[in-house]
From TrEMBL:
GST N-terminal domain ranges (all copies): 6-87
Record-linked CDD domains: GST_C_6 (cd03205)
UniProt-listed InterPro entries: Glutathione-S-Trfase_C_sf (IPR036282), Glutathione_S-Trfase_N (IPR004045), Thioredoxin-like_sf (IPR036249)
Name of protein: GST N-terminal domain-containing protein
Pfam families per record: GST_C_2 (PF13410), GST_N_2 (PF13409)
Taxon lineage: Bacteria, Pseudomonadati, Pseudomonadota, Betaproteobacteria, Burkholderiales
Length: 209
């Protein structure tokens, strides 16, 4: 891992939806100048990632004076406290709505990654169809719930529920050719509204150094 002069180092991969979620939150907070993004190889036993997070998972945020921060939800808590005011995690009852939406969208990403890995790491023809269907059903139920009750898009900035859902939908575009869009036109319209209201956050993607 190369040296960095930035006070924070974000370890992730280019395709990780959880890394993208964190980087989108960094941009939403206006903190991108503090961060250097450094690639991590979860499959490499020699990568320092396994010392930074014993689980060998990404993302990890390295901040001087603190232990390595993981997983993405812990990093979000850290980011939300950095500039005095934050829309990432609102106050009052809305806090729990945002955290619930984050958890549901995290579940979409978890299930989607498991489907990718099932096909990637099993020999061709040996992927377990019932397991793939089980994960796909989770994704479909979650997207239906979000289409019925999507996260709000506040004028002051996006909350973590909305950011996490965007990261999940963009990962579905990347790995599953955007098949969700024809089944959930209302959610597609919501995504377009997010992109129009917060274009810099929508476009935010970790650029590995």
């Amino acid at each position: 891992m190369q040296a960095s002069t930035s006070p924070w180092r974000l370890r992730t991969s280019a395709a990780s939806p959880f890394g993208r979620k964190v980087y989108m939150a960094i941009v939403a907070q206006g903190l991108e100048d503090r961060v250097t993004v450094i690639g991590a190889d979860t499959a490499d036993p020699g990568d320092a990632l396994r010392r930074q997070n014993p689980l060998g998972k990404i993302p990890v945020l390295l901040v001087d004076g603190l232990p390595p921060l993981f997983d993405s939800r812990v990093i979000i808590e850290f980011l939300a406290g950095q500039n005095g005011t934050s829309t990432l995690i609102p106050a009052g009852a809305e806090k729990f709505i945002a955290l619930r939406d984050q958890a549901l969208a995290d579940g979409v990403m978890d299930a989607s990654v498991l489907m990718v890995y099932e096909r990637r790491f099993r020999p061709e023809g040996f992927a377990v169809a019932s397991w793939l269907d089980y994960q796909a059903d989770k994704v479909e139920r979650a997207l239906a719930a979000f289409e019925s009750e999507p996260p709000s898009l506040a004028e002051s900035g996006p909350g973590i529920g909305a950011i996490t859902l965007v990261a999940a939908l963009l990962y579905l575009d990347l790995r599953f050719e955007g098949a969700w869009r024809t089944r959930h036109p209302g959610l597609q319209a919501w995504l377009e509204a997010f992109a129009a209201r917060y274009p810099a956050v929508y476009a935010a993607k970790p650029q590995l150094s």
